[in-house]
Structure formats: structure tokens, C-alpha cells
């Protein structure tokens, strides 16, 4: 069956003729006529997709019909054939909406259409070029100065299978006599549309500087920087889709990890990759990178600054060496009629000797048993002179009471239990001696006594997991199978069609092929250590803006990042255009931030709305009605979403005014990476005082159309 260009066809797209015959352009055409022309082509593509889908369904059904297959190799091929057919159907279905979105007219009169996936016609000629293929690059990179032989670029916007709008950019003025130019710019139209509470893909409106970052090599580290609204997050997500397309066998088998700052943020971006036809990347917030934990609580800034710092490393190392709560403090053994005891001090000395040989408690139980036997032998030998060490070890070491004592004295430790020890001020003070002041100890201990984990706790849990020791897991069986001693070396499916088996990837998986980190400027050193374990051999994409950082010690974090990211080739990209904020909103935010933040990166806002920022100052008892009124006004002024960003201590009272599904109340830290059509920023100075000017700057740059700032008198 015919297929769209996949990873193996990336080079092929450069070699084949990716143009096709369309009606001869008429410069006098009306928008309606041009839409009709594009509708004809879109109908042709969808008709071909329907055929391909029917073929895939037929292949799937044929596979199911092969119930009589009895040879193991044949059964395996049947199952893989069914799987690939089902996957093919899913690919076609996921890209159905807005399948065709672009057209290129070249100087020589040829035409190339660009879409969400590649489609070939009945004679295996390219009908539609996948947006990730090299042949599609001119759609994003051609400019009036570097046209790449492109005369006109057209963006096609559809609803379902119906073309609704087209918008053209004429790159070659000499072509004006033969090419009609319709619309006033697809990018501006896209930027002006209402927000829905979910991030959209920008596959139809990727700009040249964004495209360069998306198509950077997957090996090494790619650093994407830029101020607010420059599209860093969505570029990183499109980059994941591009890498999967370019080398699916590598990135789908080993996996791509996408990490964001919060669960709210991950929900916001969650549909971008599926909308691009990619379901295989693993998306985790920083609060989810420990299996079984979904942390959403934010620590107070002063507590988070301690928990996230490298000062926690020696403290955690001391903590795991402490005697577990409830461990027995005396060992009594009867040998040859005499009672021999190890008291608390002797047990502590034995524990210290164990850690000299194996610092990871969960891997040291055998060593712990040996240390107890050695300590007992030293007491027994002077009393029972005829005792033999080997016989003594076999006798005492196999006794039920000794093994029971060992289990209680040296239990298997869970990271969550060990971290909870830190809730005891005395235990934490002992571990933190020389590293943490009394006030910090009390604050951290109070946080660790909470019934749930905070987001910074997750990195501590992961560090403890390594310090305690991870027991080796048995490897899965190899895919090469054997029956009755005859090994199946390969099948036709293996040799020609199959992709490598995807490895199971939970939150502890550490063999990713690529790691994408968004809002990287906020990561603490401990969080960088946690991520570094997931991508020891990976390529990296690191996205951020230092001016928006909430981490108070950037040098410490930068050093941790260098240690986490493998050294290698570095690709750096700087985005310079603000596509989110109106000029009015961003200039207000920039004027506020410039005197408060050093080395601030100020991109150029590309559009104006004519709507100025509203500032209000009210008494504390008037705050609630003032915010409620601002929400009502915003709902009437915009078609999309409204965000209330307020200090966490204000959330309980403000929650009562959130009744409309278009309104969201979030804290300053959760607002990172998000956007709304209208934003009400509450008590900005309190935000700046608690979290720093960088976070307050974030709050001021979340609105696409309208910003209202309400402060307390």
C-alpha cells in the first residue's frame, strides 16, 4: 500500500519532484475563486487519504483473519502486521483536521503543497509534503531577501475538510503579474484568534528563526533562548515531532522526554504533540518525575531555595546513614551456653563499618549481617577459645532470631520514609550540622512534615533513591525467540518494516534519546541532577529566559546544568519576536522590568491592539469586588480565556468569584508558559517580594490582548 513519507524518506523528499499540476494562476482571481482552487486540491488529498485508510483497514482485517497461522514466526508477523496497520490508521486519523495548510509557488511556475503528513498519489508521486521534510523547509525559511526560488507563500486555513481562508505572502514582486495575492498575513490572523485554554500547534505559521531551532541536529545540546512570547515552548514541542520524523527508529525506541514546570503547564501543552501526529514522547512535570508521586504543592520561596540547593547533598548522605526509627538498640545471642550482647554503641560502630564498605544501605544488607557477626565473634573468641569462625558464622548467621534482628536493624528503606525523617527537627539538625542554620532547619522540617510532597521534594526523593541504592532489575527477554531450540533470527517484518520495540518508560527511566527541558531558568541544582540521570546519553533541548527565573542563585544552577548535560556539540538559537503580547501589554511589562532585572532580553512585539493596560489601586477590603468586576469586564471584552494571577495567600478568597469556564485562577509560579486573552494581575508587588522580580515579569507577560493590574493601597 502507498504510504506517506516517513523517517526513511526524508532524503527521498529532496530527490523526487514534489510539485504537482494545478490550475494556471490568474492574477485577477477573487478570494472566492482562489479558495475554490485550493478546495479542489484539498478534496483530492482527502480522497487519497480515504483510500489509504481503507487499505490500512483491509490490511488490519486481513491480519485478524489469519487465525490459522500456527508457525511461531508467522504468528509474530501477523501480529506485527496488524499493529502497523492499526498505527497507520491512527496516524491518518490524528492528522485529519487541517491536513493541508500551505502552498509554495516557485519562480518556474511549479507548485508544492505542505501538510501535517506526507501523502503520495496512486503512482507513488508526492502529492502532499510533510511539514518536517526537507522539501517543506522553504515554506518556513523563505524570505523576500532569501527567497529560495519561492515566488508566493500561501497559508490555507480549514475547518474539517472545508477551506475557509487563505492568506498570501508575495516574495517575488516580479511575479505579481501572474500570481494573485489574497489576505493580509496568516501570522497576524493566527495571533489574533481567541485562546482556548490549551496550547495550539503553530505548524502553519512557524517563522524562519523558529524553524531553524526546530530543525537543529538532535545530537548534542540545543539551547533556545528568547524573551516572553517568542514561542520557545511550542518550538520545543515541534522540535520533538521533527526529531521523531527524522530518526523514528532512534527516538521512538529510546524515547523523548519533555519536562515542564508544573502539572497545569503540562495539561496546557498536552495536545500539541498529538495534534502533530506524535503520541510517543513522555511528558512529565517536575513534580511527576518520581514514580507514584504527583506533587503540585509549592514550598515557600525560602524553603524551596534550601531544598533545591546543593547544600542538600551532604545532608541527604548523612540522613541515609542514620539509624532507622524503631531499630533495635541491643543484640543478644546465646552461643555455647553463654549470652553475648552488642549494645547501642557497638551496633553504631558496626553500622559505621558497613558504610565504609557499601554506602548504599539497600545494597548493604549482606555486609550488615557480616559486620554483626564480626562484632559478635570478637566477643565470643576470648570466651569460647575452641570456637571456629567459619562454623560460628554458619551457626549464628542462619538462626531465625539473628535474621529477624538483621531485618529490623537494617531494613530496606524507601526514599519517602527517609525524607520523612527530616521532619524530625533533631534528626535534620544532626544531618545538617555545619550546613544549615537553625531557622532554615526548622522551616525545612516543617515542610517535610506536610502530608503531601512539594515539587522540590521530588528531586530529593530521586536523590535518595540513588543514595539508598537501586536494586538491579532483571532484563526483559530478547526479541529474538526460539522454539524447540531453533532460533528465529529474523523475519521479513524485522528486515524491512518493523521499528525497534519501544522500551517501557516510567518516571525512573534513564535511557532517553533526547530530553527537552522547558522553563529551564527555574530549575534548581537538585532538579538538574534528577534530569541528568534521565539523559546521560541523550541529546538535549534546553529552553528558557534568564530574566523570568524564580531561582535565586543562577550561577549554582548553571553549574549544575553543565554537570547534567553531556558535553558535546552546542547549537544556540535566540528568538527575537514576541508573538504573544500586544505591543501595549509588552511595553508596559518591559518598562516595569527594566529597572529591576539585569541583562533583560526584550523581544519585539509584532502587533498592536490599541488597548492600554489598566492599573487600579484599592483598599484590602475592596479587593474582591474589584477583581470580580474586572473579570466581568474581561469576559465581555474577549472571546477567549481570562486568567487571574494572584499570590497564593489570596486564592481562598478569590476562588469564590471563579464561576465561568473561561476563567482560571493560578499562582505566579503556575502561570509560567501559559497565556490568556485577558489577565488580571493581583498584588504584583507581593508577587515580586515573595518570588522575585523575574516571576512578577512573567505575570505581566501572560496576556495576549488585555492586562489589568490591581494593587493594594
UniProtKB/TrEMBL annotation:
Residue ranges annotated for the UvrD-like helicase ATP-binding domain, each copy included: 205-582
GO MF assignments: 3'-5' DNA helicase activity; ATP binding; DNA binding; hydrolase activity
Pfam families for the chain: AAA_19
GO process annotations (BP): recombinational repair
Record's keyword terms, sorted: ATP-binding, Helicase, Hydrolase, Nucleotide-binding
GO terms under cellular component: cytosol
Annotated segments matching region Disordered: 1-30
Binding site for ATP: 226-233
PANTHER family recorded: DNA 3'-5' HELICASE (PTHR11070:SF45), UVRD / RECB / PCRA DNA HELICASE FAMILY MEMBER (PTHR11070)
Name by which UniProt lists this protein: DNA helicase
Species this protein is from: Glycomyces algeriensis
Amino acid at each position: 500500500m502507498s504510504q506517506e513519507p516517513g523517517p526513511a524518506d526524508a532524503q527521498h523528499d529532496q530527490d523526487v519532484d514534489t510539485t504537482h499540476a494545478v490550475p494556471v494562476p490568474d492574477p485577477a482571481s477573487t478570494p472566492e475563486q482562489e479558495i475554490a482552487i485550493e478546495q479542489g486540491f484539498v478534496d483530492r488529498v482527502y480522497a487519497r487519504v480515504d483510500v489509504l485508510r481503507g487499505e490500512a483497514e483491509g490490511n488490519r482485517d486481513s491480519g485478524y483473519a489469519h487465525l490459522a497461522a500456527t508457525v511461531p514466526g508467522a504468528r509474530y508477523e501477523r501480529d506485527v502486521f496488524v499493529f502497523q496497520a492499526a498505527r497507520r490508521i491512527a496516524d491518518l486519523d490524528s492528522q485529519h483536521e487541517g491536513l493541508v495548510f500551505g502552498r509554495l509557488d516557485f519562480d518556474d511556475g511549479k507548485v508544492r503543497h505542505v501538510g501535517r503528513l506526507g501523502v503520495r498519489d496512486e503512482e507513488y508521486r508526492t502529492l502532499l509534503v510533510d511539514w518536517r521534510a526537507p522539501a517543506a523547509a522553504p515554506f518556513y525559511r523563505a524570505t523576500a531577501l532569501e527567497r529560495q526560488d519561492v515566488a508566493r507563500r500561501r497559508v490555507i486555513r480549514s475547518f474539517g475538510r472545508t477551506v475557509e481562508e487563505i492568506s498570501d505572502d508575495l516574495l517575488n514582486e516580479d511575479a505579481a503579474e501572474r500570481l494573485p495575492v489574497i489576505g493580509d498575513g496568516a501570522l497576524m490572523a493566527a495571533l489574533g484568534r481567541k485562546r482556548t485554554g490549551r496550547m495550539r500547534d503553530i505548524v502553519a505559521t512557524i517563522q524562519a528563526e523558529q524553524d531553524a531551532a526546530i530543525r537543529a541536529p538532535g545530537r548534542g545540546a540545543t539551547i533556545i533562548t528568547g524573551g516572553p512570547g517568542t514561542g520557545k515552548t511550542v518550538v520545543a514541542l515541534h522540535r520533538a515531532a521533527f526529531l521523531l520524523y527524522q530518526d523514528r527508529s532512534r527516538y521512538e525506541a529510546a524515547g523523548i522526554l519533555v519536562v515542564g514546570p508544573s502539572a497545569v503547564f503540562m495539561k496546557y501543552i498536552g495536545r500539541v504533540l498529538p495534534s502533530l501526529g506524535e503520541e510517543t514522547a513522555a511528558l512529565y512535570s517536575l513534580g511527576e518525575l518520581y514514580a507514584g508521586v504527583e506533587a503540585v504543592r509549592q514550598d515557600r520561596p525560602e524553603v524551596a531555595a534550601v531544598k533545591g540547593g546543593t547544600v542538600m547533598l551532604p545532608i541527604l548522605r548523612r540522613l541515609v546513614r542514620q539509624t532507622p526509627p524503631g531499630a533495635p538498640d541491643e543484640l543478644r545471642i546465646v552461643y555455647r551456653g553463654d549470652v553475648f550482647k552488642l549494645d547501642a554503641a557497638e551496633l553504631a560502630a558496626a553500622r559505621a563499618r558497613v558504610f565504609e564498605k557499601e554506602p548504599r544501605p539497600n545494597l548493604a544488607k549482606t555486609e550488615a549481617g557480616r559486620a554483626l557477626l564480626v562484632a559478635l565473634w570478637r566477643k565470643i573468641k576470648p570466651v569460647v577459645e575452641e570456637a571456629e569462625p567459619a562454623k560460628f558464622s554458619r551457626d549464628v548467621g542462619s538462626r531465625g532470631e539473628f535474621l529477624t534482628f538483621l531485618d529490623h536493624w537494617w531494613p530496606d528503606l524507601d526514599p519517602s520514609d527517609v525524607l520523612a525523617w527530616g521532619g524530625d527537627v533533631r534528626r535534620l539538625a544532626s544531618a545538617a550540622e555545619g550546613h544549615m542554620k537553625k531557622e532554615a532547619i526548622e522551616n525545612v522540617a516543617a515542610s517535610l512534615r506536610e502530608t503531601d510532597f512539594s515539587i522540590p521534594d521530588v528531586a530529593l526523593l530521586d536523590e535518595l533513591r540513588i543514595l539508598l541504592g537501586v536494586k538491579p532489575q532483571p532484563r526483559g527477554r530478547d526479541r529474538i525467540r526460539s522454539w524447540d531450540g531453533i532460533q528465529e533470527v529474523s523475519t521479513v517484518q524485522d528486515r524491512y518494516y518493523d521499528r525497534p520495540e519501544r522500551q517501557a518508560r516510567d518516571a525512573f527511566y534513564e535511557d532517553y534519546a533526547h530530553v527537552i527541558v522547558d522553563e529551564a531558568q527555574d530549575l534548581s541544582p537538585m532538579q538538574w541532577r534528577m534530569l541528568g540521570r534521565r539523559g546521560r546519553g541523550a541529546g538535549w533541548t534546553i529552553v528558557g529566559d534568564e530574566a523570568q527565573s524564580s531561582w535565586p542563585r543562577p550561577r549554582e544552577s548553571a553549574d549544575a546544568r553543565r554537570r547534567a548535560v553531556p558535553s558535546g556539540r552546542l547549537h544556540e538559537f535566540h528568538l527575537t519576536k514576541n508573538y504573544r503580547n500586544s505591543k501595549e501589554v509588552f511595553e508596559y511589562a518591559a518598562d516595569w522590568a527594566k529597572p529591576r532585572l539585569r541583562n533583560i532580553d526584550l523581544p519585539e512585539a509584532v502587533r498592536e491592539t490599541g488597548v492600554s493596560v489598566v492599573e487600579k489601586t484599592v483598599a484590602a477590603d475592596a479587593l474582591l469586588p474589584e477583581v470580580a468586576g474586572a473579570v466581568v469586564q474581561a469576559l465581555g471584552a474577549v472571546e477567549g480565556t481570562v486568567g487571574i494571577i494572584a499570590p497564593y495567600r489570596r486564592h481562598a478568597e478569590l476562588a469564590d468569584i471563579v464561576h465561568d469556564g473561561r476563567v482560571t485562577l493560578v499562582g505566579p509560579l503556575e502561570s509560567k508558559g501559559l497565556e490568556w486573552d485577558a489577565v488580571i494581575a493581583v498584588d504584583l508587588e507581593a508577587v515580586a517580594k515573595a518570588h522575585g522580580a523575574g516571576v512578577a515579569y512573567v505575570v505581566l507577560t501572560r496576556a495576549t490582548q488585555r492586562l489589568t493590574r490591581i494593587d493594594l493601597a
